[in-house]
């Protein structure tokens, strides 16, 4: 049985975490501070879970008191900078509070299993390994199952990952369905990396990016003289993927002629180059992806029905980001850390208002749009706080009720001092902002800049006794 030390000063959280871990087969010891923890035999534990902020010394002090025990730091979303600092000081990982039970259990199981493997031990799985929730490429700052290109914890993606684990070891054709920007190619990479073909090539082809007149030659190759401009024999991408995986993105855009050749590949595992007489046997696994409804297309004659059934042996659906509310801030935090490090900037954090907007925005471009927004914000931000303006979110797509409930947005949140206290009150800021800008802005522009409705702006003017300038346009 694995032994875990909990260091948490809040009794309610400490007791709840102790009960959770005990019910799931762990032996637990709990303390309320680093000083209390130091009185125990720290090196005897398999894992230490500690809050970041504790009375006396912070939780990061534990890392200097142990020789080879992983320390998991608990922190809040608003303390991302501290969490990153903790990782740099040697914490094995951090988990955001409030956390759900599955998230904690999967994180704990993963850390203990990985640490035991490093020590050459066989560690029985206490709980299912952490499953990814967001389809984003893994880097050193990500928390994911070892060897996976995807990370996260949302229920829909956990189900997806279970399906991936089942289908990856097989040679079955897979069809990945999902909107643009959800990360279909990364799922294909994950399937390939967890398959017996992982040492073979993974060839990715965007069917929509190749002209119809060239797609057959690109995929299946051609013989010299097969068409004007074919001056030499050329191997196709299918042959290049021999022994590995061929990923066909946007398969719904494949022309009918190429569809017939692809059907032959799936049925007979052979290809014939354009202009050739002989066929070539190939050992290729096909994974396809599309954002279109192939079933409807096959019924209306836009896609070969026999090819659709050949491709749709196992279909995996990637949910859009708007259906994964539990993952949105996790992804945002992940990208924030990634781009701060990539651009060699100090760690940044989101303001309360920008967090609300990130959660409320529908993200029609999905994970790709979120990543672009965070990258842009890191570039444009002049402070340690990411505001809504720097995110560049289209407010017209945010529910009006969210906007009117937001705190005053733009710069007041960037004026927090090191301790998090405001240098001026919201009332003072509102008063100053309106007086300084009302001669140059309409009421609509003022309201948009403040992140509130025109009605809310009028009510605040009345409450704070700020009259409008005469002659201002609406």
Write a brief structural summary.
The chain has about 475 residues and is an alpha/beta fold. The chain has helices at about 10-25, 35-40, 80-90, 100-120, 155-165, 185-195, 210-220, 235-240, 255-270, 295-300, 305-310, 325-340, 350-360, 365-380, 390, 400-405, 425-435, 445-450, 455-465, and strands spanning about 5, 25-30, 45-50, 70-75, 95, 175, 200-205, 245-250, 270, 280, 285-290, 315, 350, 385. It folds into three domains: about 5-120, Response regulator (Rossmann fold, 3-Layer(aba) Sandwich); about 155-315, Rossmann fold (3-Layer(aba) Sandwich), CATH 3.40.50; about 325-465, Helicase, Ruva Protein, domain 3.
Low-confidence stretches: 121-148, 407-425
Identify the CATH homologous superfamily of the largest domain: P-loop containing nucleotide triphosphate hydrolases
Instruction: Give me the Rg, rounded.
Output: 27 Å
Q: Tell me which CATH architecture of the largest domain applies here.
A: 3-Layer(aba) Sandwich
What gross morphology would you assign? Answer: flat
Instruction: Report the structural category.
Output: alpha/beta
The CATH C-level class name of the largest domain: Alpha Beta
Average pLDDT score: 80
Strand content: 5-15%
Question: How many beta-strand segments?
Answer: 14
State the end-to-end distance.
69 Å
């Amino acid at each position: 049985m694995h032994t875990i030390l909990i260091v948490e000063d809040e009794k309610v959280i400490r007791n709840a975490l102790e009960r959770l871990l005990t019910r799931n087969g762990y032996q637990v010891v709990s303390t309320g501070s680093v000083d209390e923890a130091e009185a125990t035999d720290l090196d005897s534990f398999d894992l230490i879970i500690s809050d970041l902020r504790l009375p006396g010394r912070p939780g990061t002090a534990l890392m200097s008191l142990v020789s080879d025990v992983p320390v998991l730091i608990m922190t809040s979303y608003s303390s991302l900078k501290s969490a990153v600092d903790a990782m740099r000081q040697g914490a094995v990982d951090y988990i955001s509070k409030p956390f759900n039970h599955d998230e904690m259990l999967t994180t704990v199981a993963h850390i203990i299993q990985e640490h035991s493997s490093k020590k050459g031990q066989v560690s029985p799985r206490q709980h299912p390994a952490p499953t990814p929730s967001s389809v984003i490429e893994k880097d050193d700052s990500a928390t994911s199952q070892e060897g996976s290109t995807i990370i996260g914890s949302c229920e829909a993606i956990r189900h997806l990952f279970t399906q991936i684990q089942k289908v990856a070891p097989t040679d079955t054709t897979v069809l990945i369905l999902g909107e643009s920007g959800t990360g279909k190619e990364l799922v294909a990479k994950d399937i390939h990396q967890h398959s017996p073909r992982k040492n073979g090539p993974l060839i990715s082809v965007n069917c929509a990016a190749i002209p119809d007149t060239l797609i057959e030659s690109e995929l299946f190759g051609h013989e010299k003289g097969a068409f004007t401009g074919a001056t030499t024999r050329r191997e196709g991408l299918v042959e290049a993927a021999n022994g590995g995986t061929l990923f066909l993105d946007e398969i719904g855009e494949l022309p009918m002629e190429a569809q017939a050749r692809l059907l032959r590949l799936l049925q007979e595992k052979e290809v014939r180059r354009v202009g050739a007489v002989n066929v070539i046997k190939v050992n290729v696994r096909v994974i396809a992806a599309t954002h279109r409804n192939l079933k409807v297309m096959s019924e209306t004659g836009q896609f070969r029905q026999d090819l659709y059934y050949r491709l749709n042996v196992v279909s995996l659906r990637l949910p859009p980001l708007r259906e994964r509310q539990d993952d949105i801030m996790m992804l945002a935090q992940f990208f924030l850390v990634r781009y701060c490090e990539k651009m060699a900037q100090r760690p940044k954090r989101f303001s309360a208002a920008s967090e609300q907007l990130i959660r409320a925005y529908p993200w029609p471009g999905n994970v790709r749009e979120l990543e672009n927004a965070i990258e842009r914000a890191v570039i444009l931000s002049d402070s340690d706080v990411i505001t809504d303006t720097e995110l560049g979110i289209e407010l017209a797509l945010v529910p009006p009720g969210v906007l009117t409930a937001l705190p005053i947005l733009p710069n007041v949140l960037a004026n927090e001092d090191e301790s998090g206290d405001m240098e001026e009150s919201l009332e003072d800021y509102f008063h100053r902002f309106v007086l300084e800008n009302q001669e140059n802005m309409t009421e609509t522009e003022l309201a948009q800049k403040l992140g509130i409705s025109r009605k809310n702006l009028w009510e605040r003017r009345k409450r704070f006794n700020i009259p409008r300038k005469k002659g201002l346009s609406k």
